[in-house]
Amino acid sequence: MTPLIVIVGFLGAGKTTFLQKLVPALGAEGLSPSLLINDYQNARIDAERFRGVIDEVTTLNGDCVCCGSRDELLAALEQFKHRSGRVLLLETNGTTDSEQLLETLAFNKDLKRFTPPIQLSIIDGQRWQRRFWHNALERDQVHTATHLFISRTDIIAPERLASVKKSLAELGIHASVNDPASFAREIASLPELHDSAHNHETKPHHHAEEHHHGEGHHHHHTQHHFASCEIPLPAFVKKRAFEEFLNSLPEEVLRAKGLVVLREEPGEFQIFQKVGHDGAVQFFPIGQHPTLRDPVALFIGPHLPVESLREKISALS
User: Fold this and answer.
1) Between β-strands 147-151 and 282-287, what pairing exists: parallel, antiparallel or unpaired?
2) For residues 315 and 317, what is the distance between their CA atoms, to the nearest angstrom?
3) Quick one: which of 220, 257, 276 has its CA closest to 64?
4) Closest CA to 153 of 144, 169, 164, 138
């Protein structure tokens, strides 16, 4: 059977960064990972970070795979070519309702050649439960997890890390905490990797059995009105001016990312990202010939001030 690994985490928690370390770790265990990326509007931006690293990357643009893009996800899973040693990684977007997604996957009989879904939740150690009205969604994304990874431990104090772990314990979260290497070893040891798909009886994931949507369940996407917009960038921007623009984004913008060419490095395309109002601007060089060649900015958050963003980007020219 093919391990089906679902990577969940709030906007900017570090899912893509974790995957960049997990992919070679799986390769070192003799496994061949493929990747499905779901993101608002333009999942190809994150896909560029895996170019040359992983053979097969499929992008699912638009709504979350737990609801609006569910049919596209199921179609991609049904078309997957199974063979010995393959692993399928699904990177969900930052506002995914993991409970709803796991139920969709675990109870779909057409996916019997996959293992029951394994969910690894990425927890942002710096911002965990500091998201005000989004805290409930962040908690929900770890309640269904079988495995956890706490990101940004290199920049937070030991007291903060202890506080995060205490918070998880108080919420009754007892999933194992892994790093990419140990998680890869655990996946490589799965007995299902050696089972015959024809002799395996499909069983729902135990978390999916424990959690059921009652009449009072409200999907967080509707509750919090997450939106996204994609705005073209100038062919070149000055690094300092661009960083000042990103650092001055309004609080409604929870995450900004995209493709940019800095005037100081005109031959190099770079992926940029900015997480939250207090997060640092990050740049990831991806070479001179990416498949996505039009500079663009993607903004995610509730009630986005689209016209204001357009005006500020226009001033960067």
Assistant:
1) unpaired
2) 5
3) 220
4) 164
Given this model, what pLDDT does residue 197 score? 42
**What spatial distance separates the first Cα and last Cα of the chain, rounded to whole Å?**
52
CA distances from residue 249 to 96, 122, 124, 310 in whole angstroms, order as listed: 24, 25, 20, 12
The superfamily in CATH containing domain 4-210 is P-loop containing nucleotide triphosphate hydrolases (3.40.50.300)
- d(CA 19, CA 35) in angstroms, rounded, equals 9
pTM reported for the whole predicted model = 0.72
CA separation for the pair 261, 299 (Å, rounded) = 18
Query: In the predicted model, is pLDDT for residue 226 greater than 80?
Result: no
Would you give the DSSP letter of residue 97?
-
Find which of 13-22, 95-104, 273-282 is predicted with most confidence, using mean pLDDT. 13-22
Domain 225-314 has CATH 3.30.1220.10: yes
Amino acid making up residue 215: E
Q: Which amino acid is at 196?
A: S
Q: Measured between alpha carbons, how far is 123 from 147 in angstroms, rounded to an integer?
A: 11
Ordered by start, the domain boundaries in the chain are 4-210, 225-314
Cα–Cα separations (whole angstroms), residue 91 to 2, 120, 238, 244:
16, 10, 32, 30
What angle is formed at CA 179 by the lines to CA 132 and CA 274, rounded to 5 degrees?
A: 40
Helix (H), strand (E) at residue 227:
strand 226-232
> Among residues 275, 135, 299, which one has the least CA distance to residue 227?
299
Q: Give the CA distances from residue 69 to residues 54, 92, 177, in Å, rounded to whole numbers and listed in that order.
A: 23, 11, 29
Q: How confident is the model over 242-296, as pLDDT tens digits?
A: 999 999 998 878 788 899 999 999 989 999 988 877 788 999 998 888 777 889 9
